[in-house]
Amino acid sequence: MGPAVRWAAAGAFAAGIFVLSAVPDLKTPGPQVRGIDKAAHAAVYMLFTGVVWWALRGSNVARAALLAVVIAAAYGVTDEIHQGFVRGRTMSFFDWCADAAGAGLWWTALKARRSGGATPPHPRRVP
Q1: pLDDT tens-digit profile of 44-91?
Q2: How far apart are CA 101 and CA 86, in angstroms?
Q3: Which end of the chain has the lower number of beta carbons within 10 A, N or C?
């Protein structure tokens, strides 16, 4: 896929985050579990970072992975500021920390994948 399609996907994902942030009194479905909102923030931003990385790679940008993490974390800041203007929502430093943690988790997963994962190397057999 070309860069335009990749950037459209990243833009659509960012727009989806913006729309969800504009919903007053957004609650997670089901029983309210303490901290579930932070897990949701981390999961969304982990996925968002991956989509931004995909767009950057299609544009042949140097250090695309690092830049994707920075872009996602910065977008998290703007998302929290936006929520400060939405009735029933609040701007939260800890929500942003969860956003940035999600971006960092994506980075960690990418690095683990590139290095062959967390499995130890096969032991050498001595004849």
Answers
A1: 999 999 999 999 998 888 899 999 999 999 999 999 999 999 999 999
A2: 24
A3: C
Residue 120 C-beta-side C-alpha neighbours within 13 Å:
3
Question: For the chain, what's the residue count?
Answer: 127
Spatial contact of 106 and 49, defined as CB atoms under 8 Å apart: yes
Backbone angles phi, psi at 60, to 5 degrees: 55, 45
Alpha helices in the chain (DSSP H): 3-21, 36-58, 64-83, 93-114
Q: Does 121 score more than 60 pLDDT?
A: no
Question: What one-character DSSP code corresponds to residue 31?
Answer: S
Q: Which two tokens stand for residue 18?
A: 């913006």
Tell me which residue of 11, 1, 30, 5 sits closest to 71, measured CA to CA: 11
What mean pLDDT is predicted for residues 103-109? 96
Q: What percent of the chain is modeled with pLDDT above 70? A: 90
For residue 99, give the nearest of 72, 70, 127 by alpha carbon: 72
Scan for tokens 């989806």, then name that residue. 16
